[in-house]
Specification:
Elements (H helix, E strand, L loop, with lengths): L2 H12 L3 H8 L3 H9 L7 H10 L4 H4 L4 H4 L1 E2 L12 E2 L6 H11 L3 H18 L3
Helix pairs in contact: 2-3
């Protein structure tokens, strides 16, 4: 499943309209439609986290990672209130742990750059 299908399915699962998601993210209804249809192949990195929050999920889910392998965030994303519980999580590999360790030392802007780069790699892998 591609990221656009994850976005659309999650919006429908939550019972949200295109307009409601657009208002939460700060974009137009047409932009959300283009995300869902795949016409916009690369989401702006500043919108990924906002969209994830609007859809009550994680940026990894928005980017189309198989969340069954990484667990489900049952808390509020990014609010630092210790409600970020991951359930049914598969143990991370040493490389995944190293990536997290490195990213945790970066500034938010640098982390955003890492996310952007990783997204480009995903798109390259998917032939986009």
């Amino acid at each position: 499943m591609k990221y656009n299908e994850y976005i659309k399915n999650r919006r429908i699962e939550l019972g949200l309209t295109l307009e409601e998601v657009a208002a939460k993210v700060g974009v137009t209804k047409a932009t959300v439609q283009r995300w869902e249809s795949g016409l916009i192949a690369n989401l702006r990195r500043d919108k990924i986290a906002t969209l994830a929050k609007a859809l009550e999920t994680s940026p990894a889910f928005i980017l189309g990672f198989d969340c069954a392998n990484f667990g489900t965030n049952t808390g509020i994303i990014g609010d630092n209130n210790h409600n970020n519980h991951i359930t049914n999580a598969k143990a991370l590999t040493p490389i995944q742990n190293a990536i997290i360790a490195v990213c945790s030392t970066l500034t938010e802007e640098q982390q955003s750059d890492v996310l952007s780069y990783a997204t480009k790699l995903l798109n390259k892998k998917d032939g986009v």
